[in-house]
TrEMBL record:
Signal peptide: none annotated. The chain crosses the membrane at residues 39-64. Residues 173-321 form the Sigma factor regulator C-terminal domain. It comes from the Bacteria. This is Anti sigma factor C-terminal domain-containing protein. Residues 42-116 form the Sigma factor regulator N-terminal domain. The lineage of its organism: Bacteria, Bacillati, Bacillota, Bacilli, Bacillales. Keywords: Membrane, Transmembrane, Transmembrane helix. It comes from Solibacillus faecavium.
Length: 329
């Protein structure tokens, strides 16, 4: 009987032990669930704290660090002096802020005949002052080479061995309908002042001039890197946000722009489609030698552009965009 009682007692102890174990397991599961819940709540709380803090930091950075207006100015002014015959409407700039970054979207226009046509849309993202995204949607029909070499620019120095087939370009021009207006890139045999060129081109509009900066003969910097034309709009620009609006001298505004964007040359180089600007070297040359042009962009009626073939100072021509008649005097 003693052995039997011991067996019963041990069985009761085992049952009690199993019950305690189940309770312990339940407590552990509740503890794990509670810990997971606390972790989730903590994570969500941190995220909710990080987002407003990151936005506050972003706004402060673009207000007092590298200002959003500085990024916009460098971007727009770089395009004016590196992209021939283009303009921007900064009032149409779409600016949006994200944590640590700013997005900028805008359209680019070309003067063809007497009207401005939208030709590019830019979508750019700046992360703490650095350009980290650049997407360009183009509506151009004739696009310059993305990776220029020494002889590929459409505007070329008198001593540069240009790849442009001028005979073919004149033939294409002659084949265009009379009821069209044309954008043309004209290169000269010699260097000239812009006033000299404008007085020679009476019945077309000279819209942009490429400036001789000492590197265009070979289109190479001192370091042997390929550079591309820079210049400035020639005509009066009354666009609301243009840096050339109401300018006493477009040449002086051009020099002022170069002196400004050279402070942000890394950014300006990323903004430009040309990957090497060498601004300091070129500014020094302009300060010593003044401003002379070796090529201009003109626009006008097809027949008037065709008449330019008789002007002896023209060395090369490259056709740009063509549109239906919109010419008015």
């Amino acid at each position: 009987m003693d052995e039997y009682e011991k067996l019963i007692a041990n069985s009761k102890k085992q049952q009690l032990s199993d019950s305690q174990q189940q309770k312990l397991n339940q407590q552990m599961r509740r503890s794990v669930s509670l810990s997971k819940m606390n972790l989730m709540v903590g994570t969500i709380t941190i995220i909710l704290m990080i987002l407003p803090v990151s936005y506050i930091f972003t706004f402060l950075y673009y207000a007092f660090g590298t200002k959003s207006t500085t990024l916009m100015d460098v971007t727009s002014q770089t395009l004016y002096v590196t992209e021939p015959n283009t303009s921007l409407e900064e009032i149409e700039f779409d600016m949006e802020f994200f944590p640590f970054s700013m997005q900028l979207q805008f359209d680019q226009y070309k003067r063809i005949g007497k009207e401005d046509y939208k030709v590019n849309n830019y979508d750019m993202r700046y992360t703490l002052g650095n350009l980290t995204k650049k997407e360009v949607s183009s509506q151009l029909e004739r696009v310059q080479r993305k990776n220029p070499n020494e002889t590929s620019p459409w505007l070329t120095h008198p001593k540069n061995q240009s790849e442009v087939d001028t005979w073919r370009e004149w033939e294409v021009l002659r084949g265009l309908p009379d009821e069209t207006v044309v954008e043309a890139y004209i290169s000269f045999h010699d260097l000239h002042t812009v006033d000299e060129i404008r007085s020679s081109f009476r019945n077309v509009d000279v819209v942009w001039a490429a400036v001789d900066t000492g590197v265009e003969e070979k289109n190479l910097s001192k370091d042997g890197d390929v550079v591309s034309p820079i210049g400035y709009p020639v005509q009066v620009d009354n666009t609301t946000w243009s840096p050339f609006r109401d300018a006493y001298s477009n040449e002086q505004v051009f020099i002022d722009i170069l002196n400004y964007i050279v402070q942000y040359e890394d950014l300006a180089t990323k903004v430009s489609s040309h990957k090497n600007l060498e601004l300091a070297e070129r500014i020094d040359y302009i300060n010593k030698n003044g401003i002379k042009t070796y090529g201009v962009v003109v626009t006008g009626p097809k027949n008037e552009i065709e008449k330019l073939e008789d002007i002896n100072l023209i060395r090369k021509i490259k056709l740009g965009e063509v549109k239906l008649w919109n010419w008015t005097n």
